[in-house]
Specification:
By secondary structure, the chain is of the alpha/beta class. It has a single domain (7-208), classed as P-loop containing nucleotide triphosphate hydrolases (Rossmann fold, 3-Layer(aba) Sandwich). Helices cover 32% and strands 22% of the residues. The protein contains five helices and seven strands; from the N terminus they run ββαββαβαβαβα. The longest helix has 17 residues, at 98-114. The chain starts with 10 loop residues before the first strand and ends in a 13-residue tail after the last helix.
Length: 221
C-alpha cells in the first residue's frame, strides 16, 4: 500500500536544471542544495523520483555506475519551499577503470568540499547490507568539514530497498543499521513510499535549521 503524502511535501514542480562533470560549471548556488550520495546500484535514482513525485525524472538502470555527472534537480514543494537535490555519481563500482573511479572520487570530493550552498548529505545504504568502509570515510569527511568550517552540514542516513526484506526483519535490520551508523537511519521503500515523509522532514529541518530528527524507525505493530 502506498503511503499518504503530506501537503507540505507534495511537489508542485521538479526539473533537471543542470548536469556537470565538475562542480565549477554547476548552476549558480542560489538555492540550498541537498546531495544524494551512495554506492552504485543502491537505489539513488528511485529515491530521487519518489521524493520529487516524478517517476522518470532521474534515470534508473540495472547497470551500476550510470550516473557519471553531478545532476541538479530543482524542486518546489506545495507550500513554496524550494531546494535543489543533487544526484552524485555512485561510488565503489569495481568494474570501472581505476582512472575513471579516481575521476569520480575527485568530482564527489570537490563538490562536497567546495559547494557553498550544500546544506545536507543524504547518505544512502542498502538495508540488506548496511554501511561499509566507503560510508565510514564519508562520515569522517563530514566530521572534518564541520570542524574546519562554520557552515552546518547535516548527514541524513537512508536505508533503501526496505521492501526486499521480510516484514519481520525490517525493524531489526534498521536497529542494526542505527547501531552501525551511530545515528538515526530512515528506512525507505520505492515500492510503497515508506520513509518518504521522514526523509522530507529531515531535509526541511536541515534547511530551516531545526534540531536533528529522531530515529527513523517504523512504528511497532
Amino acid at each position: 500500500m502506498r503511503q499518504p503524502i503530506d501537503r507540505a511535501t507534495r511537489i508542485s514542480d521538479a526539473a533537471l536544471v543542470g548536469s556537470s562533470p565538475d562542480s565549477e560549471s554547476l548552476p549558480p548556488p542560489t538555492l540550498i542544495e541537498v546531495a544524494l550520495v551512495g554506492r552504485s546500484n543502491v537505489g539513488k535514482s528511485s529515491l530521487l523520483n519518489a521524493l520529487t513525485q516524478r517517476r522518470g525524472l532521474a534515470r534508473t538502470s540495472r547497470t551500476p555506475g550510470c550516473t557519471r555527472q553531478l545532476n541538479v534537480f530543482q524542486v518546489r514543494c506545495a507550500d513554496g519551499m524550494a531546494v535543489r537535490l543533487v544526484d552524485v555519481p555512485g561510488y565503489g563500482w569495481a568494474r570501472r577503470s581505476k582512472i575513471e573511479r579516481a575521476q569520480w572520487q575527485a568530482l564527489i570530493e570537490g563538490y562536497l568540499t567546495q559547494r557553498v550552498s550544500l546544506r545536507a548529505i543524504i547518505l544512502i545504504v542498502d538495508a540488506r547490507r548496511g554501511p561499509g568502509e566507503d560510508e565510514r570515510q564519508l562520515v569522517d569527511f563530514v566530521r572534518r568539514r564541520r570542524v574546519a568550517e562554520p557552515r552546518r552540514l547535516e548527514l541524513i542516513w537512508v536505508a533503501t530497498k526496505l521492501d526486499k526484506l521480510a516484514p519481520a526483519r525490517r525493524r531489526p535490520a534498521l536497529e542494526e543499521l542505527c547501531r552501525a551508523a551511530g545515528a538515526p537511519v530512515v528506512g525507505f521503500s520505492a515500492a510503497t513510499g515508506d520513509g518518504r515523509e521522514q526523509i522530507w522532514g529531515s531535509i526541511r529541518r536541515s534547511i530551516l535549521g531545526a534540531a536533528p530528527p529522531g530515529a527513523g524507525l517504523p512504528e511497532r505493530a
